[in-house]
Amino acid sequence: MKDLQFFLRLFKPYSGWLAGGILLALLTALAAIALLTLSGWFISASAIAGLIAIDGNTLAFNFMLPAAQIRALAITRTLGRYGERVVTHEATFRVLAGIRSWFFQQLIPLVPGRLSAMRSGDLLSRMTADIDALDALYLRLLAPAAVAAVGIIFVSIFLAFYAPAVSLVNALMLVIASVWTPWIFNRLGRGGAEEIVILAANFRIRQLDLIQGLADLIANRAYGRFSGFLGQFSDLMINVQRQNNRLSAVSSAFTLLLSQLTLLIALVLAALAFNEGQLSGPDAALVVFCVIAAFELVMPLPQAMQMLGKTQKAARRIRQVSEMPPAVAKPDRPLTLPTRYDLQLDGVSFSYSEQQGRVLDNISLAIPQGGKIAIVGPSGSGKTSLLQLIMRYYDPEQGSVLMAGQNIAQFDADEMISCFGVLSQRSQLFAATIKENLLLAKPDATAAELNAAVKAAGLENFIAYLPEGLETWVGESGVKVSGGEARRIALARLYLKNAPILILDEPTEGLDSDTERDVFKALADFASDKTVIMVTHRGAGLGLVDVVYRMGQGCLVLINN
Ligand SMILES: Nc1ncnc2c1ncn2[C@@H]1O[C@H](COP(=O)(O)OP(=O)(O)OP(=O)(O)O)[C@@H](O)[C@H]1O
Hints:
With 561 residues, the protein is of the alpha/beta class.
């Protein structure tokens, strides 16, 4: 329940909408009960009045007033139901949108240090399916429970005026149906409901893996094996879902049984009261119809409670991510960023985990502002890890990284990232236009600045050739542009950001030698007054730098000055 309470706090800004939805639901439920109750009374009273008239007695029955009341109640119920659906769903969508953007905010300090350890399919599940599952908290649980609680009080008071015994029995049965039954079905269904969340998340992880690796699976003719695996997974999910559905059916049947039992007792008690002259015939019908209608208040609760485990599990999964400690701590009083950008590493050692051993071992290095270095070395030797420490994605285990003589841990990490322009082999292009991808680096860039960046990155001819120019859609992750074009778009972004320190991590990996030469030429012009730290496997870019180091087994050795 703690997890749900945590999320209820996030519901607060929408309390107006939420309360409005509950009030409308209550109005609708009461109108529906009153409609059936009054109709029962009206039909009986009309029949009796008719019989009296047939006997030749004078008819003194007012048909008009109850008929008008019934019409008013029917209209209230219809409009109320419409309004309730609109308001409760609007409230839910607002709450979910709020939680989604709150969750996104929680991810920012976790990038990339913590999130790199999570699988993207799992994170996607938490961001989408798990947050969606929270809709049940208000729609299926809070709102119906509030309506049931108030409704039961209204109905019991109303019935007590006519038949106190019926009111008592009815109240007791309604409490059993709204508290005890949901509690039992919550206990019975919790395991299955939680299992559904886990299975669905794992299913999504597998599906994402399959879709991302589809080309390789087809090339290796391994598609059949993996799709068979998905089939088995689906069967497993269907089985768990089937058990849940069976339990739902039992809970509905049980509540229906309770309602029929209550009706039977109410019928007997009303008949006895009629016999003893305590209730008129129409009033006895009124009491019985009221009992029938009142059970509508509690019908949805057992099923909602049975699936509460799903909502709880989803809430726990979202909370787990939001409570992960960031890889780097925020200083209490961050220093203002320096105006010089001399970098220094003093005896820096680092490991990703205790089990894994050291990736960087006692590295010391000075890069004055405007200095240009390259780091070469075998794959897995720790080159990228070193770059990540310089940008403070992680803190060193020992030693420190300094900028202008200050430990970078004393700066606000968000602010500090503005000092770095990054170009790597994996520069992400978003499913948007070229222009939107460029504006990411400088949202207020003018047309002249955009054109200058395009020209400097050697994209001019490519853009001129496109019918839609800068407004061309690059597709999901930039699939509609070639690797070289994508790298140039990333390069243009680097120009627009115009940061004083350039971090180049294999910037030309995967490009042909002509494109590589062009990219390095463009970089050489742009980087003349900037600090450059480049990681490369290839010799072509070494002309850009003054000093070359070799990284091997976590240690850095100067090989060329
Ligand atoms: N997020 C991570 N969590 C755990 N281990 C990691 C992580 N990132 C890298 N490593 C490990 O740290 C070591 C150094 O990796 P790093 O990426 O820094 O090497 P690299 O020299 O840049 O390699 P490459 O040239 O192939 O890009 C490797 O053994 C790698 O498996």
